[in-house]
Design brief:
single chain; mainly alpha; 2 helices; rod-shaped
Amino acid sequence: MRRFRVGARLYGIIALGGIGLIAVSVVFTTRLQDMSRELKTVNGEIRQQDQARIMQLEFKKQVQEWQNILLRGHDAVDREKHRRRSYGSLDRTLGAT
């Protein structure tokens, strides 16, 4: 290293630092892209879980209304009210798919 002047040494150090910075940038960008893909996958799975939960709740409501029809269906007004609710739950359940 003694044969190089101070200016040449500084340029060498700066060049090595620049190369190192570029290498770190490439690695960081690659990791960032990988994390972005993973995040998109996780978001899709969360949406699917939310959709399944909504369908489950709507189905539960539909079953409850069907039970209401069976238990309270002897009165025509109540039967019609619970039947409308049951079909409304069915429409929401099918609409959630």
